[in-house]
Design a protein that fits this description.
13 helices; mainly alpha
Length: about 280
């Protein structure tokens, strides 16, 4: 046994401890007393469950036990972020959000702080429903994703956060468009116009702006306001001339004896100066 050092002995002891946990553990850690095991051994059991079992749910109680039995240890910190990750994997989003928030609150300088914020954002983002439903979670996702983008721009999660931010932003615009189309179909032009105006003013970088401008042309023609309809058509033609929505708007204007050109002093005139002439002040 010469040359068998203390480090090797410790490693063997941990391996034996983990083997004992794996071999003798009941179905859940609540059914056994884990206080005889070290934080590291319990944590490794959680990792084992996470990698070896069909459902990651079996790992969660072990990570929770590390936090409960060894609250001030380094493994408690690691176990907390693993709880957040595992709960998110099992789609227990509220619980995942709570675990991630605890990490943010308890370990603001922790090495996994960027990941904790990212998991917090994902817990909202992955709950975003179909366009037709309430978008409160989308707003929450946007705010949480912005924290990752702005506070941790050099982290490995920033790029993914930016992509998800754009998708969530587009999602909100889609919601406005859906409501606007509903009002327009019923010829409630003023109500529809408010929705399409929101898209043009607040969601200008999304994929819905071209259609929103075309619908604005429809609304203003329906309201009998030709100057505004022509200005919307001019903006659409300058920025999205290759879009089929521009052709639809052009045909509609022509049918009513109008042409796409900037006229009047409405809110669209400001948009025209910004988007076409580059006058932002």
């Amino acid at each position: 046994m010469a040359g068998f050092g203390a480090g090797a002995a410790k490693g063997l002891g941990m391996a034996l401890g983990l083997a004992l946990l794996v071999a003798c553990a009941p179905k859940t850690p609540q059914q056994q007393d884990l206080s005889a095991f070290t934080a590291e051994e319990i944590f490794q059991r959680g990792e084992y469950e996470l990698s070896a079992k069909t459902s990651p749910k079996t790992a969660i109680p072990y990570f929770q036990e590390v936090e409960r039995l060894y609250p001030y240890s380094e493994y408690a910190k690691r176990a907390l972020i693993m709880q957040a990750y595992t709960l998110h994997q099992t789609r227990e989003y509220e619980e995942a959000r709570a675990a991630a928030q605890r990490y943010v609150d308890f370990y603001p300088a922790g090495e996994d702080i960027a990941y904790a914020h990212y998991l917090l954002a994902l817990s909202y983002y992955d709950q975003i429903d179909e366009v037709g439903r309430d978008q409160g979670l989308t707003f929450q996702a946007l705010m949480a994703l912005r924290v990752v983008i702005e506070d941790y721009p050099d982290s490995e999660y920033a790029k993914s956060a930016m992509l998800k931010f754009d998708l969530a932003f587009d999602h909100l615009a889609a919601k406005e468009m859906e409501i606007g189309r509903y009002y327009l179909k019923g010829r409630h032009y003023a109500a529809a116009l408010n929705r399409f105006r929101t898209v043009v003013q607040d969601y200008q970088t999304t994929t819905h702006t071209a259609e929103a401008l075309m619908r604005i042309v429809e609304c203003y023609i329906g309201l009998g306001l030709p100057d505004e309809a022509q200005t919307a058509g001019a903006i659409l033609g300058y920025n999205y001339q290759a879009s089929p929505f521009y052709q639809d708007a052009f045909n509609l204007l022509k049918k009513n004896g109008l042409a796409p050109e900037a006229k009047g002093t409405s809110w669209l005139s400001t948009i025209y100066r910004q988007m076409v002439k580059g006058e932002w002040l």
